[in-house]
Write a structure and sequence with these properties.
Low-confidence stretches: none
Oligomer: single chain
Largest sheet: 5 strands, parallel
Helix content: 25-40%
CATH superfamily of the largest domain: ANL, N-terminal domain
CATH class of the largest domain: Alpha Beta
CATH topology of the largest domain: Rossmann fold
Strand content: 15-25%
Mean pLDDT: 92
Number of domains: 3
CATH architecture of the largest domain: 3-Layer(aba) Sandwich
Structural class: alpha/beta
Radius of gyration: 25 Å
Strand order of the largest sheet: 4-3-5-6-7
Shape: globular
Length: about 650
């Protein structure tokens, strides 16, 4: 079925006008917006934008959290044949300059004062930015800037226009073709300027439909939209598939209330990057540390049962009577209350993507009865390339190709994809487009992987990141940094890891502790500390992290392929890695090369055998000011293990 997003909206408004399309939590109360009310709102915004001068093929920036009016503005722009560009709401003002100028943006939607201030700050650098519309008027009463107006004013103007031009909106919607450009997403690349990934209505809707068919999604699903709309994953799950299936998208009151809102909504279809699942698990472990001895013992016992029995149960494998009984008891006492506490009591399908998830973390959720699966895709592929079927979810693969997808692996080990969901182009960047799209339609993913004997795709790492150990006892051994990092990040005490080892004789890592988890651990031991930097350098904390590193080394020793990737030395960083400091992308991926340059003295110290190293680092504060933090960091050795030989 070839169609467009505005046509899908009007279909739902016609066929099920009173059904809920979205809910938004305001002042602690959930407000419902029906499909017919949403269609009317979109019509009024579209008519207002038309009057203001937005034309077909123009770009319009939208920046803010998930809100019904942000979604309505995107639909309104698409209804006129214009192209919405969602930007990250937590991006610094300067990060918005390139996308706005690259796409010649004249119109912008800003959620609130914070986003308005950001756009006004860069207006001199973006002189074509003539119209800025805001949704939340708090703090903006006394602003007097040319072209700055409230969305309410735009809606009122559009409502008046619509009354006098009854057929205008429908005529505009009918004029949009499936092959027209629907949206543009700027990648948060780890190097250089971001690239504008251009997608059509057909490429996004086709992949939304393929994913919906795969997991039998219906209009009865409940989804919580809490991730940045600028991330293509959130956009597919709460926009493309929302309009394809007609299910309900729920917008939390704020980022601080997401956990509470998750429990109240009880989504049936849930999506989160590994970092979110890590955070949820960390919060559980912190609470368990504070529980009574009896509860901790019960939790530990039944989690051992879950680890042994749960994954097999989720995969539909037969269980013995004793295991069934033990698991059922554990479900009543531990797993059920735990799923409820996580807000996952009603989850039928949960996905993780964006980066590789640690195998232990993946197994944990499946073991307690959450149908967590992995998918493989990217901004350029409109997300859905591979999906894991129910009963075939494995920690070390990302599933089988979904409808319409072909996959092959090049001689160099790179995964190539052909799909109806591929990008049209990188905007104004034909050279970059030619690098990733072949003449016969294959997309270069830059990921190293292979198809296993069961037809599942297995991703090892980024092609450019997979390396080899050079020299020493492990000379020539494969080194996959992301795999090592994810193994370490399973531990609740560890928030982020950066691993190095390519073309070196051993693997060394820099660690960010999880301040909440380790802080809680320290307080229970009556350890005084004066902030993150002080806590990170405590000898007791180093002993805690060393134990985690050595457990991972023991696991790696049992993996013939990656036994040489065991960590020999580590240090704990004095500050948390931050996207504002350029150390992470806006989707929280480690910029390994940038960090190596920024912390070159630390990398050198790890490999030179030093036991401590002084470092001074420039940081950016939330108000835009720059400062510096300095510390003398300790460097510790970790025990490595001889590779475990497979039984003959």
């Amino acid at each position: 079925m070839q169609t467009t997003f505005p046509k899908l909206l009007l279909n739902h408004a016609t066929e099920r006008p009173t059904a809920p399309a979205m809910r938004e939590k305001e002042f602690g109360i959930w407000q419902m917006l029906s499909w017919s009310a949403l269609a009317t709102l979109v019509e009024h915004i579209a008519c207002g934008l038309h009057q203001a001068g937005l034309r077909r093929h123009e770009h319009m920036v939208v920046v803010g959290a998930n809100r019904p009016r942000l979604y309505a503005t995107m639909l309104a722009a698409q209804s006129l044949g214009a192209v919405p560009i969602p930007l990250y709401q937590d991006a610094a003002a300067q990060e918005c300059v390139f996308p706005i100028n690259n796409a010649d943006v004249r119109f912008a939607f800003a959620e609130d004062q914070e986003q308005v201030d950001k756009l006004l700050e860069i207006r001199e650098q973006c002189p074509q930015l003539a119209h800025i519309y805001f949704d939340d008027a708090r703090g903006l009463r006394n602003y007097d800037e040319p072209g700055l107006a409230s969305l309410e004013e735009l809606i009122a103007s559009g409502k008046s226009f619509a009354k006098g031009h009854a057929g205008f909106f429908k005529e505009q919607v009918d004029g949009i073709a499936p092959g027209d450009v629907a949206a543009m997403f700027f990648t948060s690349g780890t190097t250089g300027n971001p690239k504008g990934v251009v997608h059509t209505h057909d490429s996004l809707i086709n992949r939304g439909q393929a994913g919906a068919e795969f997991d039998k999604l219906t209009s009865a699903e409940e989804v919580l939209a809490y991730l940045p709309p600028a991330w293509v994953g959130q956009n597919i799950f709460s926009y493309a598939q929302w309009l394809v299936c007609g299910y309900v998208v729920n917008c939390p009151e704020s980022s601080a209330t997401v956990t509470i809102d998750l429990k109240e909504i009880g989504p049936t279809y849930y999506f989160a990057p590994p970092r979110v699942f890590e955070g949820l698990l960390t919060s559980v472990m912190i609470r368990m540390d504070d529980a009574s001895r009896l509860k901790r013992s019960m939790f530990g016992y039944f989690m051992d049962v879950a680890k042994r029995v749960g994954p097999a149960r989720m995969d539909g494998k037969p269980l013995g009577f004793a295991d069934k009984l033990l698991y059922a008891l554990g479900n009543v006492l531990v797993y059920g209350p735990l799923r409820n506490n996580l807000g996952m009591s009603r989850v039928r399908v949960a996905y993780t993507a964006g980066e590789a998830i640690g195998p232990d973390l993946f197994s944990f959720y499946r073991s307690i009865g959450v149908n967590l699966k992995q998918l493989y895709g990217s901004t350029e592929t409109a997300v859905f390339v591979c999906l894991q079927p129910d009963h075939e979810a494995r920690a070390d693969t990302v599933g089988v190709p979904c409808r319409g997808v072909e996959i092959k692996v090049s001689d160099a080990g790179e995964v190539l994809v052909k799909s109806p969901g591929l990008l049209k182009e990188y905007y104004k960047n034909p050279a970059a487009t030619a690098e990733v799209l072949t003449a016969d339609g294959w997309y270069h993913t830059s990921d190293a992987g292979f198809i296993d004997a069961h037809g599942h795709l297995k991703i090892i790492d980024r092609v450019k990141d997979v390396g080899r150990i050079k020299g020493g006892a492990n000379d020539g051994a494969m080194f996959a940094p992301k795999y090592v990092e994810n193994k370490l990040k399973f531990f609740p005490q560890i928030k982020e890891v950066v691993a190095y080892g390519d073309q070196r004789e051993k693997v060394c890592v820099m660690v960010n502790i999880d301040f909440d988890a380790v802080g809680n651990w320290a307080e229970r031991r009556n350890m005084a500390y004066a902030g993150y930097g002080d806590l990170a350098q405590k000898p007791e904390v180093y002993a805690l992290i060393k134990d985690c590193v050595e457990k991972v080394n023991a696991d790696l020793a049992a993996d013939t392929l990656l036994a040489g990737s065991q960590v020999s030395r580590f240090l704990v960083l004095h500050k948390e890695l931050d996207a504002d400091d350029g150390e992470l992308t806006r989707t929280n991926k480690v910029r390994r090369g940038f960090i190596a340059e920024k912390y070159q003295p630390l990398v050198d110290a790890l490999y030179d055998g030093k036991t401590e190293q002084f470092i001074e680092t420039v940081v950016k504060f939330e108000d835009g000011r720059a400062g510096s933090v300095s510390a003398t960091l300790q460097i510790a050795d970790a025990k490595t293990f001889a590779p475990v030989k497979a039984a003959a």
